[in-house]
Design goal:
The protein has 232 residues and is an all-alpha fold. Helices cover 78% and strands 0% of the residues. Potential subunit of the gamma-secretase complex, an endoprotease complex that catalyzes the intramembrane cleavage of integral proteins such as Notch receptors.
């Protein structure tokens, strides 16, 4: 899905490609900082204390989510300044790209980098050693990981639209909703290997975020209803 979003909606516009790459870079920096803090915390703690290590893992995931959203806000501020510069340089006084389009492309950038790292970790696990499910655990690890990667790519895209809209119109509850959804999806991964506990809530949240982003982007509830019912 990530390549489809890129090819059909971004690849033909150089400005969108730049925004996408910059968004991916912002997500990467947030991951680097959160990983560094988690690594320091683990090294400074007792590795034999399993309860403590689990707590640090939960802390690392939650802190990473908050840092990602903080960097999303910083990226919004940067793009807002970029729009002002583009307007000042344009002959007609209009920006060649709207803030809604920037929000979408930035969200795809966050999602692409998130999906890329998820796939890298998945492929690293696939190299072994060991066999999935050999001790009676679920053998759906790779399949569910692929579905989880897909939903995260789409979620980051929709979250980008919702987050930027909240910042643009000073609707802080929309920003809070994005952070809560992100924390919920990331926290649900601790339900694994009971994959139903993570996949089902994630896809339900994706559907809700998609509908919400669609309406904020100018879509009508009537057209969405007709689309869901497959009516022309």
């Amino acid at each position: 899905p990530a390549f489809g979003l890129f090819i059909f909606t971004i690849a033909r516009d150089p400005l969108r490609i730049i925004i996408l790459i910059a968004g991916a870079f912002f997500w990467l920096v947030s991951l680097l900082l959160s990983s560094l803090i988690w690594f320091i915390a683990v090294k400074a703690s007792d590795p034999q204390d399993e309860q403590l290590q689990k707590g640090l893992l939960i802390f690392g995931v939650m802190f990473s989510v908050l840092l990602q959203e903080a960097f999303r806000f910083l990226y919004y501020k940067l793009l807002r300044k970029a729009i002002e510069g583009l307007v000042a340089l344009s002959e007609d006084g209009c920006s060649p790209i709207s803030i809604q389009q920037m929000a979408y492309v930035a969200g795809v950038g966050f999602g692409l980098m998130s999906g890329a790292f998820s796939m890298i970790n998945l492929l690293a696990d696939a190299l072994g050693p060991g066999t999935v499910g050999i001790h009676g655990d679920s053998q759906l690890y790779f399949l569910t990981s692929a579905f989880m990667t897909m939903v995260l790519i789409f979620l980051h895209t929709f979250w980008g639209i919702l987050f930027f809209h909240g910042c643009e119109h000073r609707r802080w509850w929309e920003i809070a909703a994005v952070v809560i959804m992100h924390l919920t999806v990331s926290g649900s991964s601790f339900c694994n290997p009971q994959y139903v506990g993570s996949l089902v809530p994630s896809y339900l949240l994706m559907a809700a975020a998609a509908a919400w982003a669609y309406l904020l982007s100018g879509g009508s509830a009537q057209n969405l209803r007709r689309f869901l019912l497959c009516k022309c």
